[in-house]
Design goal:
By secondary structure, the protein is mainly alpha-helical. It has one domain. The protein is built from 6 helices and 3 strands. It has helices at residues 16-25, 34-43, 48-74, 79-106, 110-118, 130-137; strands spanning 8-10, 28-32, 122-126. It has a 3-stranded antiparallel beta sheet with strand order 1-3-2. Helix 2 (34-43) crosses helix 4 (79-106) and helix 4 (79-106) packs across helix 5 (110-118). The longest helix has 28 residues, at 79-106. The mean pLDDT is 85.
Length: 143
């Protein structure tokens, strides 16, 4: 039996209305791959403020690393190691915020949700295993 905090991966295509409803009920969690989300933001007409923030923080990460290489020559040789780890932290946070932007927008925009669904970009977690989820929450075709 599943505990209250146990989540199970769900495979398949969940329609927009069902996913939105189940998410609001707390039965389903949605996720999108960070790289796919970054591509969606950079290659579509997106909110300019969010897109600019992504670009800015990507450049900040790159400049942190380049600065640390400079300091490894002019100050302490190991500075680039610290810079590398700082760059990775900023880079990961930027990518994670990309997926949060896409998820937030997709729950308000059915077309965006379905575009991500078409490329297999959604990752689902449910409070019940796959077979129970399909029986309880997904109507068989023809009903």
């Amino acid at each position: 039996m599943a505990t209250q905090n146990q989540w199970f991966p769900i495979k398949g295509r969940i329609p927009y209305d069902v996913a939105k409803s189940l998410r609001e009920q707390g039965v389903l969690r949605l996720g999108v791959d960070n790289s796919l989300a970054a591509n969606i933001i950079h290659n579509t007409k997106w909110n300019p403020a969010e897109k600019s923030a992504q670009i800015l923080w990507s450049w900040v990460a790159i400049l942190i690393f380049l600065g640390s290489i400079y300091f490894s020559f002019t100050w302490h040789w190991w500075s680039f190691i610290i810079g590398f780890f700082l760059m990775r932290m900023v880079w990961k946070a930027t990518k994670k915020s990309s997926s949060e932007f896409v998820l937030e927008r997709a729950l308000m925009d059915q077309m965006l949700y379905e575009r991500v669904l078409d490329v297999g970009g959604w990752q689902y977690l449910a409070t019940v295993p796959q077979d129970v989820f399909e029986r309880q929450y997904l109507k068989p075709i023809g009903d």
